[in-house]
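Section 3.1: Structural characterization of target chains.
Under the original work plan, the team committed to producing a structural model for every single-chain target entering the pipeline before any wet-lab resources were allocated. The record below documents one such target. The sequence was received from the expression subgroup and is listed exactly as submitted; it comprises 297 residues.
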Amino acid sequence: MKAFKYIMILAVSTALFGCQKDPLSEITDGSWNRERNILNISFAGMIGNPTIERDGDDATIEFLYNANLGSDFSAIEVTSLEVSFGAEASVAVGQTLNFNNADNTATITVNPVNGEPFNWIVKLNPFSEPLDGNWIIAEMKILINIMGDFPEWGGTWDESNMADYLTESSFEMDNVLSFVFGGFNELGNSYGTFSNQVGADGKYGEFTRNEWGYDYNSKYRLLPKGSGTWEKNYSNGTIKFIDADGKVTTATLINVTGGVNIRFEFADSIFWDNPWDWVAKIGQETKYFWYSIREQV
């Protein structure tokens, strides 16, 4: 009788537990995994981070591209790619996408472990930094406040070539300015490197009047010699120059026909004893000093 009871207990146990579903089976066989997202991606020439958005069946990626590298978008390399666990994408790191179409878009298909493929639309937004390239110096000008707000007293605003006052500054006129766009910082300002290289005369301009013994380099050498870095603020139109020693100068960029003016501003002060005095004009009454630059062709 006892043997019969044991047999019955064994039969019931087998019925209860032998048919129980393995709770880990869906995890181990991957059938649960229907994820098909792109978590992160980057491209050669990309500026900043991409914008990745998904709303149901609509999935888009947009990124800013440095168009100063060229206008051929037919083979933009994928430099990093992260998709959902276990999923596979139609493109891999090191491969390229073709954005050469009217919308500058391409498609990446993500295949999940289990489920249907899913398409992501990727849009390239080209950006060109206007400063990028080589520039020649067309003019170097100053504006002097000789009681300019008081014309009734004979006052005037004197706009002149810098070399009319500081003769040796003219050696700067054949220099070549080069700007290389590097990207955007966390403030949204563009930045890069620059060089101010001497021209055929092999000399930088000196802000001096040697025949009279005057030296104003400390006041007017605001565009650095040699090379350094720059940062451009789009909100107020200014540019910072940082030279090799870390000195910072700031100018305003003004777009003009055929080029750009790099304008430095001073806190001018009228010399009331003799506003027309040469030393007063160049030493304390200058309001603006600017380089007019044109693209080198």
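The longest helix spans residues 2-17.
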